[in-house]
Amino acid sequence: MSSWYKSWILLTGFILFYVAYLLFGAFVFSTIERPVEDKLKRDIQVLKEEFLNQSCVNATSLENFLERVLQANKYGISILPNSSASSNWDLASSLFFANTLVTTVGYGHTTPLSDTGKAFSIFYALLGVPFTMLVLTACVQRLMHLVTYGPISMCRQKIGLEPLAATAVHFAILLLVVVLGFFVVPAVVFSYIEDTWSFLDAIYFCFITLCTIGLGDYVPGEKPGQNFRSLYKISVMVYLFVGLMMMYLVLRAFHRMADLHGLTSFFQLPHCDEDIEEDKEPIIEAGHEDQHEAEDSAKPLDPASQTSYNTINR
């Protein structure tokens, strides 16, 4: 088995381990926080009944009632009867929270209620954030050959474009595909599912999410009586991960193009030449026989025939 297949198999296992890490976090968060949430809901319901049973409402009792309600609402718990059925800490919602935590999006709509949950969030994010960045980097490293190097080579061979023009055309097409596939089309879907969202609100949500800003003023799946809420939350989680991967891919492609066009030299920024050699290295070490075969196949017949980013005139 070649090192190329071994690296893809290892990457697949890497992604599966990442999914298992998210599921582990979701299970722990749900186990810790759901009993606390249920208790807070009962306390708010008792407070509501006591307030309604008062014969005469004074300013002090009203302020106390509003303060408790606003405090509960900060943790995603509403006093409205049609919103009490859904939980913020079921398995799907906990999985969504764990994903937003390790991707640094952090909408802030749902936050840990207990001290144990807050402490676990620190340790979970301490490992999960760099782990997420590592998984995204590994995925983009593999996709660069498929989405960037291959199409640029095709533009040069099939269409006959110059290297600089080929990179510019490729980046424009890639940017258009990402804007349509991860901003416009999802915005149409979100504006259809979320009744209170306009198309501009949905575009705004997609941009805030994929830029990992996560203001939290728009959070999907929080509408009372949301159909297929668990499936919807998981779908948004997948969109978030794939969207972040594509945003990182666009940034890497732009860095490549800027390097070829001399922008990195003009602004005295580091070049990507050293990353190109790293992208060519397999994720795992090949065996001795595979290594000798790779070395033999890598020997150039003619040094002048080997093209690289360094040989292109900027």
TrEMBL record:
Its main location: membrane. One of its GO terms (biological process) is stabilization of membrane potential. Residues 84-144, 179-257 form the Potassium channel domain. InterPro entries: 2pore_dom_K_chnl, 2pore_dom_K_chnl_TASK, 2pore_dom_K_chnl_TWIK, 2pore_dom_K_chnl_TWIK2, K_chnl_dom. Residues 280-314 are annotated as: Disordered. Residues 281-299 have a biased composition (Basic and acidic residues). It catalyses: K(+)(in) = K(+)(out). Keywords: Disulfide bond, Endosome, Glycoprotein, Ion channel, Ion transport, Lysosome, Membrane, Metal-binding, Potassium, Potassium channel, Potassium transport, Transmembrane, Transmembrane helix, Transport. Pfam families: Ion_trans_2. Residues 304-314 have a biased composition (Polar residues). One of its GO terms (molecular function) is metal ion binding. The chain crosses the membrane at residues 7-32, 122-144, 164-190, 202-219, 231-251. It is found in: Endosome membrane; Late endosome membrane; Lysosome membrane. It is a multi-pass membrane protein. GO terms for cellular component: late endosome membrane; lysosomal membrane; plasma membrane. Glycans are attached at N82. It comes from the Eukaryota. Belongs to the two pore domain potassium channel (TC 1.A.1.8) family. Homodimer; disulfide-linked. This is Potassium channel subfamily K member. The gene is KCNK6.
